[in-house]
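step: validate -> pass
step: tokenize input -> pass
step: predict -> running
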Amino acid sequence: MLTSDFKRLSALATGDANLPYVSQSGGWHIRILPNSRYQVRQVAYDSENKNTGGSITYATGSSWSAIRNYPANGVIYVNDDVWVEGALLNGRLTIASSAQLNPSNQRTATSIIIADDITYATKDGNVAIGLIAQNNIKIPMYAPLSKLPPSSDDNLEIDAAIIAQEGRQYVSYDSSGWASGWGPRRGTLTFFGSVGSFITPYRRTDDRTDGHYAGFFSGVNTYDGFMLYNPPPYFPTVGTYQILDWNELPSTDAVPFQ
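step: predict -> pass
step: emit ->
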């Protein structure tokens, strides 16, 4: 049960790897770096705008932390909302976000916001990032943050195994009013990994023959087959390995141990 997994993940994340609750409207921004490192910064709030994309506002006096190595067990736990991004990543890391262990006045279900690309340095099973949110996995209007203002040429890639426990994985956009004013309009959203969502995910509006849309115009989804036997650290799994087919060979055809 994922509820018990959050308790375990919190216990595994010690010291700087266990980030506290800070605000009803803020949280933490984790920038994952190459070579199994990361930085954190406190977020005060964010804003979204279909024309400009929006922005992240950081807490007064907050700056990026000194560069930290991944925890030895590969687990970071956030007792608040968390914004995540990172490019050309190495190693194996799980980031979990849940407020269920907080005091009663701080238990609003938390979400993970993907602010920019999350990409692996290699896609050969040696890199695995897991994102587990108590509520939603959200792609905001300002993603990708590094390419603002938004453009239909902007693409976003997410290499990760993600779970939205009580909510959904979704793209934020504004399709209110006349279709010509919908936005922001972005290009292609690429997923490499796996997606678990309690509520049906959504990523963009319907096709329109007049070219008006909101969200990402197209999407590419590829399952990371390495996740089956080598998921991110302490990532929740269901069931056991199964033998789908086998063929017993005569001893003369046996492959010797190396």
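step: describe -> Confidence is low (pLDDT under 50) at residues 239-258.
step: cleanup -> pass
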